[in-house]
Amino acid sequence: MKKIILLPLDERPCNYGYPSLLPKAGYDLLLPPKEIMGNKKIPADTGAIAKWLLAHIGEADACILSLDTLIYGGIVPSRLHHEPLETLLSRAKTVEELRRRNPRVKLYLFQLIMRCPDYSLSDEEPDYYDDCGRELHLYGRYTHLEKLGKLTEKDRSEFEKIKRKIPREALSDFTERRRKNLSVLLHDLEYVKNGTADYFVVPQDDAAVYGFTSMDQTVVRAFFKENTLHMKTAMYPSADDTGLSLLARALCELDGVRPKIYVHYASSKAGGVVPWFEDRALDETVQYHILCVRGQRVYSLPEADIVLAVNMGSGMYRDDDPARVTGLDVERNLAAFVSFIEYALEQGKTVAVGDVACCNGSDGELLRILHGEDLLMRLGAYAGWNTSSNTLGTALSAAVHFLLGKDGEGRKNFLLHRYYEDMGYMAHTRAFVTENKLPAMGLDYFHADGERGEVARFVKEELTAFMRENFPGLAVLVENIEISMPWRRMFETDVAVIMKKGEQSEEDRS
User: Fold this and answer.
1) Burial of 32 by CB count in 10 Å (0-12 exposed, 13-18 middle, 19+ buried)?
2) What is the DSSP string of 254-319?
3) Count of CA atoms in the C-beta half-sphere (13 A) of 144
4) Measured between alpha carbons, how far is 454 from 448 in angstroms, rounded to an integer?
5) Is the pTM here over 0.90, yes or no?
6) Which pLDDT tens digit goes with each residue over 101-128?
């Protein structure tokens, strides 16, 4: 059986756990031992990881490496380290040794451009981000606009105020780390230029049109252009889904397959929407996702292997935004969208639903319709979590795995996992527990009482009750769920869904 090594972006379930939950597709997955991975701001043991990779590379048919983990110890440590440039570059040389030890291995690399979020919070950033995170983001934005000659007089006045607000030490620390990380990335891109690596993805985490990340992107894109690397690289909004997408790519290349993918939107305007935390129109990102899994986009249903059904209106809106009615009710037709999904299923297509109409959770309106039409468990794949790109990469990778492996039980298990997490937890239980349980405990959104404390118990109770009441056709399939809070906060949870033996949903029977 084929063997694929994956060094994930960090130890969270979305990066370390989801790959093992995908439908089986004829390969053994090798992950580094959890104990040498990091813990949020505590970096992974990079020396132990390099040693583990070198010990296993000889048996691998493909190897997918998060260079942020190999070099910095994870995504969050990449934003916090004070390592000398020479140390970082020496760690990257493990890639060369892996290729030397296994010349035949398919080697896929991914490495992020360091983000600069637009809020003041140090949960995943340096401590000073509590005080001046928003200002650092604006500093990058105004610097970029100034370089482009687009800075207005009002902007210039605001820029001067921002400069006075940011402590000199914080600005120096932040910008110096960015320069160092960009130097490491440009060094590592030589591996795809010289043939050491087969494919290289540069994910953009919390990207924006203007700012530090966009300026760095321009430098990286110039490297791509100068070396004509367009077919061996990809740079698009992404992060926690990249490992999954490259797993699908490795599987397709090892099997000599190029899945044909047809894209269908819930709104005629959806493809032009720029999702929150991203820097380009949705349809451009969709095309990168298809390329990343080694797919080929097609434009008729009959020739498709996979239908990527993308739930998006004519924009993204907060619940209290009056424009939400137009964007999601008037300029989106869910009845037609669901009807098309049912038709595609009747034609024998693997349908993956990318539910990106709402940020950080499922669109309950869509899922209630799909549940009412007995379609939820007939899908090939579903995702509706976190950013638009996280969702699309997860759904598409799961669909490719099911298409090639035909693992029906694995498909059902991953679907249930997504519905319980993306709908049950992210769209409902997270806010319910935060508002109704945490205040009395003296806790808040960013501080739970450990991984398996009272908060986890409250989450399990509310999530179980919510799914039984609102999605009984799914709940009947579930024996039990287990909950933990991996980074001891409410943003994400780890949901383990234990399926009942021999149960069938209405969707299964139809």
Assistant:
1) buried
2) HHT---EEEEEESSTTGGG---TT-SS-HHHHHHHHHHHTT-EEESSSTT-SEEEEEE--SS---T
3) 18
4) 9
5) yes
6) 999 999 999 999 999 999 999 999 999 9
